[in-house]
Amino acid sequence: MGYEKKNYHIASKDLEHHSGRQNEQDWHHFTRSSGHHGYNQHSNRRYHHEQYHNIENCKHSDSRTYQRTRATSIGDDDEGHLIYHNGDMLTSRYEIVGTLGEGAFGKVVECIDHSINDCVHVAMKIVKNIDSYRDVAMSEVAILKKMNTLDSDSHYACVRMLDWFNHHGHICIVFELLGLSTYELLQKNNFQPFPVENIRHMAYQIIRAVRFLHKNKLTHTDLKPENILFVDSDYAVLYYSKDKWSELTLNIPEVKVVDFGNATFDHQYHSSVVSTRHYRAPEVILELGWNQACDVWSLGCILIEYYLGSTVFQTHSNREHLAMMERVLGPIPTHLLQKTRRRCYVHRNRLDWDARSSSGRYVRKQCKPFKEYMTSRSPEHRQLFDLIQRMLEYDVTQRITLNEALSHPFFKNIRKSRK
Question: Where does the Protein kinase domain start and stop, copy by copy (predicted)?
Answer without folding.
Answer: 94-411
